[in-house]
Design a protein that fits this description.
Layout: E1 5-11, E2 44-49, E3 63-65, E4 85-90, E5 93-97, E6 102-107, E7 113-117, E8 148-155, E9 159-164, H1 171-178, E10 196-203, E11 206-212, H2 227-234, E12 237-244, H3 254-268, H4 270-273, E13 277-281, H5 288-300, E14 305-306, H6 315-326
Parallel strand pairs: 1-3, 2-4, 9-11, 9-12, 12-13, 13-14
Antiparallel strand pairs: 1-8, 2-7, 5-6, 5-8, 10-11
Length: 332
């Protein structure tokens, strides 16, 4: 299963209480205070991991709490501090405060960490309260409570190239031909229910990440279907490859389908409408592919590429073109 949004409560561990005790040893009359400090409570830390693909593992419980620190002991022994609770999340996870609806952190780099709920400090033992006028303090302070937060985690997949288009345009098949990704492929709309990432190898040292964004439909920017869930992931893609089916099974016009998707992207995020785009007509083996390409040129002034994932026609040229576009912004 794939989950790209989850709300949870995170609680830092309570600090251990300080100890109030007095030295008791043979031949040491009137031993002074010797209570130690409490240990610090564990913090809840979010860590971006490249090998974590979903937030599904965080849905098993509503509240995630770090351990408490241990109480201080006599002979000025400090209580042990608790280990931090590390919650692994996918790279591209955004952390929001539910109560104030503000972005706290964008975990957009592998191994990036964020202390989302700090553990409480340990209390002070009574030895800390000894003064020249109070040589036998009986007071020790309690440990500090850990921080509590209600947070919302939203995953926006990070990819160099994002595949967009109407359902059944051939995005999953194209991704499977260019990378090692193996999405479900079938001859009906909405085969892909979740975004899928694939690594496209150019040379042994050169590669880029391509994401198959599930099929968009009209009204997606208003939340129709799973519009918001799908469109969120497009925002992280560097380049958009707009895949056009030359002969849609539902009888719709390919150019009108292109306009619909373009409108959905712009309405959802104006910047998406200005994102660099490569128009690609799939299923080059169909006679309509050449005709649709000519219409794009004549009516929209766009010169699309024509490919066939089934036969492999045009795939090397598409890969080469993407590399040429990505080179200035990608460290190979």
């Amino acid at each position: 299963m794939f989950t790209d949004e989850v709300e949870i409560e995170v609680i830092g561990g309570k600090g251990g209480d300080g100890c109030a005790s007095f030295r008791r040893e043979k031949y040491v009359p009137r031993g002074g205070p010797d209570g130690g400090d409490g240990g610090r409570g564990g913090s809840v830390i979010l860590r971006a991991e490249s090998n974590t693909a979903s937030l599904i593992h965080l849905t098993s419980q509503k509240t995630w709490k770090a351990r408490n620190g241990q109480q201080g002991g006599s002979a000025q022994r400090h209580g042990a501090s608790a280990d931090d609770l590390i919650l692994k999340v996918p790279v591209g996870t955004m952390v929001f405060d539910c109560n104030h609806d503000i972005l706290l952190k964008d975990l957009d780099v592998d191994q990036k960490e964020f202390v989302v709920a700090r553990g409480g400090f340990g209390g002070k033992g009574n030895v800390r309260f000894k003064t020249a006028t109070n040589r036998a303090p009986r007071t020790a302070s309690p440990g500090e409570e850990g921080q509590t937060r209600e947070i919302r985690l939203e995953l926006k997949m990070i990819a160099d190239v994002g595949l967009v288009g109407k359902p059944n345009a051939g995005k999953s098949t194209l991704l499977s031909r260019l990378s090692e990704a193996r999405p479900e492929i079938a001859n009906y709309p909405f085969t892909t229910k979740n975004p899928i990432l694939g690594l496209v190898a150019v040379t042994p040292e050169q590669s880029f990440v391509m994401a198959d964004i599930p099929g968009l439909i009209e009204g997606a920017h208003k939340g129709v279907g799973l519009g918001h869930d799908f469109l969120r992931h497009v925002q992280r893609a560097g380049i958009l490859v707009h895949l056009i089916e030359p002969s849609p099974q539902d009888g719709t016009d390919p150019l009108e389908n292109y306009r619909v998707i373009r409108n959905e992207l712009t309405e959802f995020d104006k910047e998406l409408g200005e994102r660099q785009e490569l128009v690609v007509i799939s299923k080059a083996d169909l006679p309509e592919a050449t005709e649709v390409a000519k219409r794009f040129q004549d009516e929209l002034g766009i010169t699309p590429m024509i490919i066939s994932s089934a036969t492999g026609a045009g795939l090397p040229q598409l890969r080469h073109r993407l590399v040429e576009i990505l080179k200035p912004a990608t460290r190979w």
